[in-house]
Amino acid sequence: MRFYGEGLPGVDPANLAGRLIVIEGADGSGRSTQMELLKDYLEGKGHATVNVGLRRSTLVSEELKEAKQGNVLGEITRSLFYATDFADQMENRIIPALKAGFIVLADRYTYTLMARDIVRGADRDWVRSLYGIALVPDLVIYLRVSPGQLVERNFRKNSTLDYWEAGMDLGLSRDIFDSFMRYQKLIQREFTLMQREYGFHLVNGNRSVRLVSAEMTAKVEELLEM
């Protein structure tokens, strides 16, 4: 394994025996369902797994949740909040699990954070340097779902659209539905660019849970047989 940048002091990626698998996708892409199916599959095959994700660190997750509820977070403050959350998990959860030989399943990773920052006007080089501590995953699967499907699935699940996932802070539209569609298209454009740069495995998430799961499982099996 290797880091994208300088990495964390005192950590030699050569000593990390586990695997890091990242599942990316917007809210409503089926990401959480596929994470659970993949976890069950791997554990059924005898692999020890650890789940991580955004806003799950013990250091700042609660503070970040409270700050988001007010819908008033500044862009730099928001970026640094998430970067701190990620760094804490990298140091205290991801790396220890990889040292122990676990398969770490990440429910989104730096790519979502980078895309969010960039569409809000952050400098690309600054964003990349912010996440230079990140390990390069062994596999990144991106569940791409059309914005129309995302709207339908989010309404079905929550009966509403999330303020931040709709990009309402960007002033794209006063209508949350229209803003959501525009924002998700901007995010998907960034992911298309990152897919070329980082080599994501793109999965059509518009299909059934069973078909998506089968493709993802096959890709993970391919990785583990290497």
Q: Give the CA-based shape.
A: globular
Query: What is the total number of structural domains?
Result: 1
- Radius of gyration, taken over Cα atoms and rounded to an integer in Å: 17 Å
Unreliable runs: none
Which structural class should the secondary elements be placed in?
alpha/beta
Question: How do the helices and strands line up, and which of them pair or pack?
Answer:
Blueprint: E1 19-24, H1 31-44, E2 49-53, H2 61-69, H3 75-99, E3 103-107, H4 110-119, H5 124-130, E4 139-144, H6 147-158, H7 176-198, E5 201-204, H8 209-224
Helix pairs in contact: 1-8, 4-7
Task: Please explain how this structure is put together.
The protein is of the alpha/beta class and about 230 residues long. The protein has a single domain, classed as Rossmann fold (3-Layer(aba) Sandwich). The chain is about 50% helix and about 10% strand. The protein has a five-stranded parallel beta sheet, sandwiched between helices. The mean pLDDT is about 90.
